[in-house]
Amino acid sequence: MTTKLTKRAQRTPLTKTEELNNKRNDDPDSDSQEAIETIVSSNIPLIPAFIGLSYLHGSIVKVYCIHTDPNHSLPWQMKHQQSSTSSGFVIENKRILTNAHSVQNHAQVKVRRKGFDTKFIAKVICIGRECDLALLTVEDDEFWKDITPIPFGELPSLQETVTVIGYPIGGDNLSVTQGVVSRIDM
Known about the structure:
By secondary structure, the protein is an alpha+beta fold. The protein is built from five helices and eight strands, in the order ααααββββββαββ. It has helices at 7-10, 16-26, 32-41, 49-56, 141-144; strands at residues 60-70, 78-91, 95-98, 106-113, 120-128, 133-138, 161-166, 175-180. β5 and β6 (133-138) form a beta hairpin. The termini are far apart.
């Protein structure tokens, strides 16, 4: 005699993140702040997509950079300016984390929050080319008003589901994408 299992029965038990997702789906008016505090205090490495819809979007910024690359054949001159955009996110101590290549050879860096028309001038604090990370800050206090820093979590495992939020090339709106971790390089 064979037993046919449902898809849910074949899967592993619910994770804490899935339980919170199901709780919210069962009761749309549930307190999402309680879910956020539970996730942050339990060190769950990933913040689930449902929190991203209301909590994370305001902490993701679009980075606008004007680059001026050096001219190595004529060191007294600079090459033509180029512009680019990328994504960053607000972390503690009024700092923004972004990729180093997005602000490399910067002449001017500006950041814009979701829902704001104003681009704020950002200062590059440091660039780590080896790890492709850069820290920015904004001196204008208006930028930091009602913004929540995103806490760091643990490194996700292979095959773990992750959610990526940012501004893709050519896009002016936030993009939310889900996938799985297929490789970790250190």
